[in-house]
Amino acid sequence: MTTEKKPGTLKLTPAAVKKKPADPFAPRRAPVRPPGPARAKSVSASAPKPPREPTKGFGAQRPGAEGDRNDRPRSGFGADRPGSERPASDRPRSGPPAGPRDNERNWSDRPAPRRPDPRDAPYGSTDRSQRTPTNAPRPPQSHRPDLARVGNVRGEIRLNKRMADLGLCSRREADEWIARGWVLVNGEPAIMGMPVAPDAQVEVLPQARHQQAGQVTILLHKPMGYVSGQPEDGHEAAATLIGAPSQWRGDARHPADARRFAPEHTRGLAPCGRLDIDSVGLLVLTQDGRIARQLIGESSGIEKEYLVRVQWAPNGPHGAGVVTQDVQAVFPADKLALLRHGLSLDEQPLKPAQVDWMNPEQLRFVLVEGKKRQIRRMCEQVGLHVVGLKRIRIGKVVLGNLPVGQWRYLGAGEGF
Fold first, then answer.
1. In CATH, which superfamily holds the domain spanning 157-213?
2. Cβ atoms within 10 Å of 209's Cβ, excluding its own
3. Residues designated catalytic
4. Given a cut of 60, is residue 146 above it in pLDDT?
């Protein structure tokens, strides 16, 4: 009798179990989750997806409720046409449906011509024959001063020029007054840039007169080394000499109404007539546009008197034959006549001038114009070299005893 033994279960203690070292290159196993409620399975990206229905073509009928417009027969693009075997869903998304080829086309079945669309016509080609001409008179257009043309047949000119011609102020000052509403034309407030007729009544309000009364005019004895206008080439402007310490108090004849210097008197001072950097004498600086226009305006005829010390230098100031003493004796008389009239500068003839000998080395010039370095360039054309130039008079105002580098106010009774 054969006895079979049941296989027993071998139990090992934890101490007897020997763990093998982990293989770093072995694939990782998913952790065993404890039992729990059933979870929804996620679809893996590698799992096969259900087939999608083919997309219907453009114009295909869409499902809708009964009585929807999709159930209605369509006659437009994409609708089922009789005689077409291809369904609408197979048609291309854009473009007209395919038709027969050229050799199979029946020329009697041409499509009807398209009605012309007025929007396709170029701009400006609209048929104007449909408009019926009217004989109704046009309404009179009101005069627009701001859009009127200046210098028209009525002889109108700009208001600022008209005010300057009347001697009321300068053009720049007129624009400032117009902007502030201080000017009336025929009783109405003026507009910037408006033209006015010659017989228009131009009125200036008292505010403008009061502002103009506070403007000053300064007479300065400019020294050598200062420029008349803006600083240039490292030289200071003559206006920097205007101040309380340099005001001349020795002229008892023209106290200028005992006016005291104020800092605002140096604002907006404009030189009226330039003097070269190496020239000295009377220089006028003013805040009054009327005086500026009177002295340097286009139609200005104010005389300016100069004393000029010269040398005879027919070959230039550094050439041979320079005469420094008794220049009057060697200077030809015909050259003196050219200085008075007959010379040109910048291809423009000069106006007649008064030129006389004051002493054997000094000439006296009286000019009614003031071009750049005019006297020096005139003397160069006749063989003279200027070594000194001083302006002693402008109109009726003389330099007098005003010391070099000092200044005074133009008196109330003085005028150019």
1. RNA-binding S4 domain (3.10.290.10)
2. 11
3. 276
4. no
